Amino acid sequence: MATHRHDVLVIGAGNGGLATAARLRRKGCPDVGLVEPSTRHVYKPLQNYVGLGLADASELERPQADLIPDGVTWHRTAAVAIDPVTRVVTCADGTEVAGADVVLAPGMAIDWDAIPGAAEALQQGWAISTFDDALLDRAWERIRTMQRGTAIFTLHGQPASGRETAMKPLLLACDLWRRTGVLDAIDVTLVHDEPQLHAIAAIDAEWRRHLDDLGVEVRLGTRVAAIEGDEVVLATDGVETRQHVDLLHLLPPYVASPLVAASGLDAPSTDGFADVDPETLRHRTHPRIWTIGDTAALGDARTGGALRHQTRIVVENIRRQRAGDDLDRYDGYTVAPVATAKGRLSFAEYDRSGSLRRSLPARVRDELRAHRAWYVLDRHVLPRLYWRGIVRGRA
């Protein structure tokens, strides 16, 4: 079978894949291929707002065909394996596609089976998640009708897609319950498997301020080990306890795309994620394979804000490597946009050194403190920028 060959081949047409393909074309790359089976494209950061009744589901997605950049060849199939030496990709439909350079951006997958009983509890409806667009209507109905009882929200360390934004459903739900007069009748707990809410003290303190104001109990070093009936099994330092719960919001467990391990692009320490240099985004062993987004083992928070910087770095580094120039460096920039109430949001930017960052001029108000301006930015401005600019390589 003949192999379709491209100058650059991008695998995955999510946020990062589309933006990379579009940037490559805008920078003059003559032949870009894109491997992606999905016919719909979801703007994931809006899922929490839909699940809390603050956005309409119609705003979530667009047809994938409407977003494929001009001049990009779309292979409407899934990549199942890559020969990392020849960079020939075997696809699910039997075709073979190759790239002089390959950019991996297939994302990662939700794995509900990692928590025994989770799939059944989600099906029954008392367990919910605003990170799965198939469950958003059910999530909003459950939160909206909650009048009393016990609610548990979960947070966990990496791997997680948009981990920090799991604070959104917790704080927005509590804000709704306060505004409707039922918060005092609901015992709310945040369960987090790490020893601190956030590694950066200023972000941790800002989150704590809102949790304390709402009366939320925080249990650190604790995870949901299983769900049995209407009880959750919580594990803390190896000790398990059982607790009845009326509403359980889960940040999903995630696993790497099987494509990475099937192609030998992971490492023993990366749990199936691509073994790449976290600064150049180039594979440590195969220098013409690059990885961005959730697929990459970077040690940084996996967010859409991070992807904007990563796509720029990868496109520039492909050019620089071909020219024999020094590669550009990604500093781990990411962002934690957390809505603290309807109409208010904390917009924390930081990098892998643990330093807070600002993308807006210093004269603009403190981004870390919740404010209406940051809510408008996250809820209304960024979705428009996403569809019109980011995935089109313009922002």
UniProtKB/TrEMBL annotation:
GO biological process, one term: sulfide oxidation, using sulfide:quinone oxidoreductase
Residue stretches making up the FAD/NAD(P)-binding domain: 6-302
Molecular function GO labels: FAD binding; sulfide:quinone oxidoreductase activity
Pfam (any one): Pyr_redox_2
Superkingdom per UniProt: Bacteria
PANTHER family xrefs: SULFIDE:QUINONE OXIDOREDUCTASE, SULFIDE:QUINONE OXIDOREDUCTASE, MITOCHONDRIAL
Protein name per Swiss-Prot or TrEMBL: Sulfide:quinone oxidoreductase
